Amino acid sequence: MCDSFVTITGDGVMFAKNSDRDPNEAQPLEWIPSADHQAGDRVSCTWIDIPQAAHTHAVLVSRPWWMWGAEMGANEHGVVIGNEAVFTKEPSTEKALLGMDLLRLALERATTATGAAAVMVDLLERHGQGGPCSYEHPRFTYHSSFLVADPDGALVLETAGSHWSVEEVRGPGRSISNSLTIPAFAKAHARPLRGWVSSAAIRRRRTQAAACSAAGPADLMAALRDHGRGSSPHWSPIHGGLGAPCVHAGGLVASSQSTASWVSDLRDGARHWATATSAPCTSLFKPVQVDLPVDLGPSPANVFDPETVWWRHELLHRSTMAAYSTLIPRYQTARSRTEARWIADPPSAGEAFDQADRLERRWFADVAGAHLEDSRPAWVRRAWRRMDEAAHFERELVR
Predict the structure, then answer these.
(1) CA distance 177 to 122
(2) Is 45 known to be catalytic?
(3) Is 2-295 a domain of CATH 3.30.360.10?
(4) pTM for this predicted structure
């Protein structure tokens, strides 16, 4: 499950997205340089191969570790895209392109938001969409909607199988979540019950309001950290933490987790911030650039590896969640001040990641040293014990 939204101002466009997926599904950043390709070359997407384009643009994407495609990203021309799972009446198909594949392909092949939508529609009609959308739950499939932006505007592209509809964003804000939102298209193709299970309407009301009122990147970051009523996460036995944009796993039916987050400011050039870690409320948004790759070390998978950026942050994230309302104040102010400096005067991405690592190591030592009892509901504690065991998560070895 996910949320994406844009703010349209007189000076340009801002974009934000939380990627909500399986809690142990690490989501690293990946820099892919521009390239020229030979006639007849093919590209291996998640499930199928398709003809390669003659030229592909440089892109920076946030990509689930096992997947070729991406949840969100930007290209060298200032195009930014986020995607959402949507549940439709159209049947699931054999393995084809995933929505995440369409997103990355559009970033690699288009120079404008309108061009990116055209690329996705063309590929959708030629190759279809289908196949498992989860590594841990291979029977889980869905279709996708997309929020596509560039410095001059934004649009929504919604799909149901090979069907599609496009809507230009008029402003001041537009949000999409895990249900179809273009009225006539939704009436024809939506499955409302699945949208209810994902709490899509509840989250979209909050992100729509945030999109319409945001004045800068800090407001978008705050919206991605929104826990709904109150400042701390809440869980439903059915939906887990899906009742607010900052999603925390723990439901018995739906158990998504915000595994990566992204903010773009396209108003004066293109500036991007990405967490490369889960739970925006416990993460730092680091400034990143499409044309300046950073070596972030080993690539993570779905098993705990403290040598990787994503899993090292899980030490802080999972420890904080045991007693969130007590533990988050221990570093929340430092987190916000650091981001404010980075927004006003962004360091290089490498410097930001190095500083974030030092800060998070210190914060984890402080949080772990508090030795507080887990205050979450019993079903949430049980769910996280299972997830920790599946990932061989051993925080005690790293303290």
Answers:
(1) 23
(2) no
(3) no
(4) 0.96
